[in-house]
Model the fold of this input.
Amino acid sequence: QVRLVESGGGFVQAGGSLTLSCEWSGRNFDNYGMGWFRQAPGKEREFVAVKIYTGSTFYGNSLQGRFTISRDNVEKKVYLHMNMLTPEDTAVYYCAAHKWEYYSGRGYPSSNDFGFWGQGSQVTVSS
Done:
């Protein structure tokens, strides 16, 4: 059974940085794509980034350059490094794992590609 536990959320001033981490419990971490989504109040869940099992990465629109996803296959963790944060980045951030092993996704990543979710971490950026 896969379990994802997130940490690292909190408050940060605009222009600051924050790193979220997500720890995997279960088998075959290396074989799964890992991603991040976020959901702001009153808005739909939004794709942020994914690092598939091959190592390739994809980012949500307008986020590449400020956000970086990385993973440590030894520690079984995935990270989201966020820089130059703005109040518009305020949201609950969710770690997620692809539904299937060796899956690369099809088209623009969506929550339907992911079958395992973390509990969510609140990130609040003050102006």
